Amino acid sequence: MSGKTGSNGNSILRQPKAVWAVAFACVIAFMGIGLVDPILPAIADSLEATQTQTSLLFTSYLLITGAAMLFTSWLSTRIGARTTLLIGLALIVAFALAAGLSGTVEEVIGFRAGWGLGNALFISTALATIVGAASGGASSAIILYEAALGLGIAIGPLLGGLLGSISWRGPFFGTSVLMAVGFIAIATLMKKPTEKPVPSPVSAPFKALTRPALAILAVAALFYNIGFFILLAYTPFPLGLDEMGLGLTFFGWGLAVAVTSVWAAPLLTRRLPRTRVLWTVLLLLGADLVAAGLLVQSTGGLIACVIVGGALLGVMNTVLTESVMAATDLPRPVASSAYSAVRFLGGAAAPPLASVIAGAFTAATPFYVAAGSVVIASLIIVVGHRAIAHVDHEEEGELVEAEAITIGE
């Protein structure tokens, strides 16, 4: 976030070892978002899988991540943040390793689901852990956390391309090893908490969806995520690049997401109402997806659309999640759990849907469907404005902003 400074000089870098351990693990966890993009075609070739089967690597991951988000606050308030982090990391280590050892695409799909469970447990508690353990105040901790998040999103596709150029199994093995290092670091450097958290009821996220403002934003996010994940999970196939080419393309995408989510989104919401930012950026994203359809035969044109799309997605992710947090008086973990579960349904459905549509029509058609979906999301924001208008006037602090970036990604 532009202009942030720690409360005293170099306090951002003067952190306890436990904070650096969690920050390192955050980088690796967020790398997992774009890690498989460069190796999707290679997996399809090596395992003799169809494009639709390969796209299910995203579906299983997102479906389980979304479902797990409904229960992470309930679990972490009973077993504690440190234990939740370690369980999440252990699951990622085990399932990433298993995915790399798989002999069929069905096995990889199943192990990616387990990876999604681990990621949900880790990400849901990482920010609170860093803020609680950091020195120099919450501001310093948030800067460090956002730096780790942005680094992970940008590096993930690049590492996937580098390791994937050796073997499609490489990114999975690399993630497993790095997460194992993160697990050891947290287990040895983070002390067990002395205070017990206040338990959260398991029904809280389900009841949250009965709130009109939250329901409207969650449904808009579902349609938005269809566009998001068609761009992310389908585009590697029509691009036709090798692993390194895809890695560099989605490195540009990840860098754009990170930069606009951390800097551009707060800048826009300081000058414009959140709802106006939402429907405007959604329409711009729709135009970008239409351009991707028209330029599907042009490698350079399609790469440009991917990177521009990343810039728009970064703004959307942060502003939409900030709006969710301001929409109700519910505890933020409850609201974000309910919202995430619904929006991930759109992300889970999008990759196989895009592949089926491309097979039935043309390579450009999925992009037009994605554009239509984000336009629907824009219309939901406009039509439901009365129920969500109050989010335009809510002032959010740095901690809420950082949580919005986390959940948005």
TrEMBL record:
Give the transmembrane ranges: 18-36, 56-76, 83-101, 113-135, 142-166, 172-191, 212-234, 246-265, 277-295, 301-320, 341-361, 367-384
Membrane topology summary: Multi-pass membrane protein
Please indicate if the UniProt record lists Cell membrane as a keyword.
Answer: no
Any Gene Ontology CC annotation: plasma membrane
Q: Which InterPro entries match?
A: MFS, MFS_dom, MFS_trans_sf, Tet-R_TetA/multi-R_MdtG-like, YfmO-like
Q: Does the keyword Transferase apply?
A: no
Q: Where in the cell is it found?
A: Cell membrane
CDD domains registered for this protein in UniProt: MFS_YfmO_like
Record's protein name: MFS transporter
Per the UniProt entry, what species is this protein from, by scientific name?
Herbiconiux oxytropis
